[in-house]
Amino acid sequence: MIAAPDGRAVSCRSMFGGMKHRLLPVFAIACVLVAPLGAQEASQGSGPTMSAGGGKLLPLDSNPGQRSMMTAAQGAVLGLVEGLTEFLPVSSTGHLSVVQDLLGLNATPQEKAASDAFAIVIQAGAIIAVFLVLFGRIGKMASGIVGRDRDGLRLLGNLVVAFIPAAVIGLVLEERIKKYLFGYWPIAAAWLVGGIFILLVLNRRRLKEGAALETVGWQSALIIGLAQVLALWPGVSRSLVTIAGGLLVGLSMSAAVEFSFLLGLVTLGAATIYEAVKKGHDIISMFGWVSPVIGLVVAAVAAFIAVRWMVDYLRTRSLAVFGWYRIAAAAAVVILVAAGALAP
Predict the structure, then answer these.
(1) What distance in Å separates the CA atoms of residue 137 and residue 149, rounded to the nearest whole number?
(2) Whether this model's pTM surpasses 0.85
(3) Which pLDDT does position 208 carry in this prediction?
(4) Residue 271 in contact with residue 92, Cβ under 8 Å?
């Protein structure tokens, strides 16, 4: 048996038995998220192409020995890191920044730009995983759009309200954030502060206290959305601050986690599409098709496992393990920077 976000017990058989009904909308989501990459590639290319190593499309008169700078194994590692950390309160952005450097994927400015863009686009895998986990709740919101579920429509409206603050501020401050906050000292500081916050504040919260998801109003949604703005600082963790925001407005732990996951679908989906349209060609030109797609698939599988585990884990336990993990991660980054393995 597996715990659903609302606390109900769901058997693995029933969960996977309905999976076939979810594949069509999942396929549609995948097409929407990935199509911009192909569109940009098509608009940039001219003349016949051939497939090179790693799936990269090269003009026929290119150097036949040219290969993608990201291997399939590297793509899988990035997908695994993204999937395991995206919806846990530990910051996927911070983890991906460290792993990209350790894998040697930031050797040149062009490669770093493509790696940073891929770190956002790869979120598509985690989005698909959460879509599968929360398929029933998403179905209620879809019914609300056509006037068949008032609660579903209300929840969808609240998600839009919560999404707006980070979307607006992120667009306005995008360049400054990348210039001043995408470094290992800011990431380590965010990990450390977040870990202490979990242990001293969130860990004191009783697990079953609080209101259900259906009680969320637009004012509470706005507060959670304002909390999400803090996650524009790499290392803070979007999941952490939105869960904390949910607890702050009086939700139970399970309700706060579910709202965080649903808000992630909206926020990460918008960011993924935006980055794919803006930098999709750079990703394909640098890394080809095969390695990024492998990363997306691995991210989807890893995120599905991580989300199901987290929902089940938080039924009876606190967030303390994530607090200690964040402190350890901050210490590890400081050691790696001091040893010269990571450039500050």
Answers:
(1) 11
(2) no
(3) 63
(4) no
pLDDT, tens only, 37-96? 444 444 444 333 333 333 333 333 333 334 457 999 999 999 999 999 999 999 999 999
Write down the pLDDT at residue 261.
96
Q: Which residues have CB under 8 Å from 207's CB, separation 6+?
A: 252, 253, 314, 315, 316, 317, 318
Residues facing 10 on adjacent strands: 2
**Amino acid letter, residue 178:** K
Q: Which of 263, 176, 196 is nearest to 236 (CA)?
A: 196
Which DSSP string do the residues of 266-324 spell out, in sequence order? HHHHHHHHHHHHHHHHHHHHHH-SHHHHHHHHHHHHHHHHHHHHHHHHTTT--SHHHHH
pLDDT digits (tens, 9 = 90+) for 304-335: 999 999 989 988 888 999 999 999 999 999 99
Residue 229 and residue 89: Cα distance in Å, rounded? 15
Adjacent-strand bridge partners of 49: 59
* Average pLDDT, rounded, for the chain: 83
| Residue position matching structure tokens 């199509």 | 35
Do residues 128 and 83 lie in contact, with contact meaning Cβ atoms separated by under 8 Å?
Answer: no
In degrees rounded to 5, what are phi and psi of residue 22?
Answer: -100, -10
Cα gap 290→68, rounded to integer Å: 9
Cross-strand partners of 59: 49
> Given this model, what pLDDT does residue 42 score?
41
Share in percent of the chain as helix, strand, coil (round to 5): 70, 5, 25
Question: With the CA atoms of 184, 297, 108 and 69 taken in that order, what torsion angle do they form, in degrees rounded to the nearest 10?
Answer: 140
Concatenating the DSSP letter of every residue in 177-211 gives HHHHTSSHHHHHHHHHHHHHHHHHTGGGS-TT-SB
pLDDT higher than 60, residue 238: yes
CA distance linking residue 15 with residue 102, whole number of Å = 37
Helix (H) or strand (E) holding 57: strand 57-59
